[in-house]
Amino acid sequence: MSFNVRKVGEHHFRLEKEFFSTQLDLVDSVRLMSKLDEQLGMNPPLSQGQPNFLALYRKLLLVLTHMDQRSMQHLMHLASRDLLVNILRTVKASKLENRLMTYITKRNRQAIESDVLYDQQIKPGDALQAYSDFFALVEQLIDEGQITLVDPNGDYY
């Protein structure tokens, strides 16, 4: 069975097949693909290995850094310290970690760096939960109009 996939927006897709159609955003569609892979035995469940969509979450996190500085600082301020520790553990020792740290207050940065878990490797299930919670906060702030995502090329999405 194959579906027709149409791009509706920057990160929104429409799947269609005869009398069935649904619209998914990028994160939900990747979750669906991962779950289908898991059902087909092509991707182990979370307890057995790293899900294939953690890399996508890292890319989405990188896209967030293109927001204006005020919005990004506001987001990082509203995220809990534990959530930030887990998010930063997923991008440890990378340019993205340094980029994210620039939006965190000096006091919070020191607390994060001195956290016991900060230097430990994160389990895939914990990383997935951290990203889910973080992007739920992002969606909430967007819905409330507190932050606006800006495409690096100048288009809003």
Automatic annotation (TrEMBL):
It comes from the Bacteria. Pfam families: FliG_C. InterPro entries: Flg_Motor_Flig_C, FliG_a-hlx. Residues 64-149 form the Flagellar motor switch protein FliG C-terminal domain. This is Flagellar motor switch protein FliG C-terminal domain-containing protein.
